[in-house]
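Continuing the series of single-chain predictions for the mutant panel. This is the parent chain; the variants come on the following pages.
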Amino acid sequence: MDNHHSQKKAQQQRDDLTGEHAIGDAGQIVLACLFAAAWIADTFFFKYTTFLNRYVPLGVRIPAGAVLLVLSGYLARKSLSIVFGKERENPGVIRESVFNTVRHPVYLSEILLYLGLLLLSISLAAAAVWVIAIGFLHYISRYEERLLLVRFGEEYEQYIKEVPMWIPRFRKR
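Parent structure:
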C-alpha cells in the first residue's frame, strides 16, 4: 500500500473530520493538470492567447504574481496543517487562524496559485481553465458546507454568518 493511500485511509477514519465530495480530489488533480498543460503550452510554445502580456509590463506581473504565489503557499500550508496536523478530541467548527478569515482557505490557496501563475504569463486558455476550476471548487465547497451544517448545525450556521466564503472582510461587522 503506497504512502498516499494509507494517509488517505487514515484521514477517512478520523472522527474529527467531516468529509469531502467523492470527486473532489480527482477533480482538483484533473483541473490542475489541465491548467498546467494549457499554461505551459500557451506560455512557452504556442503563444496563441498570450497577447495580453504585451500590455501588462513584467515589472507589474512578476511582483503581483510572486505575492499571490507566496500568499497561496502560506494559506495552503497553514490551513492544511490546522486540519490534518493533529486529531481533535472534541470535533467542532475550526475558527483558528486562516479559518477565521475565510471558510475555505485550502481551496482559496488553489485559486490564488493559478492566479499567480496567470499573472506571471497571461494565457487566456489557462484563464478559461482557471474559471472552470473556480466553479468546481465553489461546487465542492457548497457540498462540504452541507455536510458541516448537518454535523454542527447552529455552530456552523453562525460561522457562515461571521466568516466569508472566499473574500476576506477586513472590517468587523
